[in-house]
Write a structure and sequence with these properties.
The protein has strands at residues 2-7, 10-12, 18-26, 30-39, 46-51, 57-59, 67-72, 77-82, 91-102, 105-110, 114-118. By secondary structure, the chain is mainly beta. The strands form two sheets. Strands 2, 4, 5, 6, 9, 10 and 11 form a seven-stranded mixed beta sheet that branches. A four-stranded antiparallel beta sheet has the order 1-3-8-7, with no helix packed on it.
Length: 120
């Protein structure tokens, strides 16, 4: 059984920073691509940033230059460093990972989400 657990959310003032973590546990052979998504009230879930198994990254235009995604393969953990936060970054942040369970078998998993609120 595989679990993804996000942490690091909270309340921060505009211009502040937060670091989100997404830790995978369970019977994992390896982790392929991981994405951070967010969903604000009344809006669709959107991709914020993604990182491939080799470390390649891509970002939504709205967060480029402010957010950085990284991964620690030994710890099965992916991070999202968020700087210069704006009120419009307020949302529940979710991580999604393609987990390789064994050779030839992979599945997508979602975490439970962590709330990020940017407000003065």
């Amino acid at each position: 059984q595989v679990q993804l657990v996000e942490s690091g959310g909270g309340l921060v003032q505009p211009g502040g920073s937060l670091r989100l973590s997404c830790a995978a546990s369970g019977s994992i052979f390896s982790i392929d691509i991981v994405g951070w998504y967010r969903q604000a009230p009344g809006k669709q879930r959107e991709l914020v940033a993604a990182i491939g198994s080799g470390g390649s990254t891509n970002y939504a235009d709205t967060v480029k230059g402010r957010f950085t995604i990284s991964r620690d393969n030994a710890a099965n953990t992916v991070y999202l460093q968020m700087n210069s936060l704006k009120p419009e970054d307020t949302a529940v942040y979710y991580c999604n990972a393609k987990i390789i369970l064994r050779f030839g078998l992979s599945e997508d998993y979602w975490g439970q989400g962590t709330q990020v609120t940017v407000s003065s």
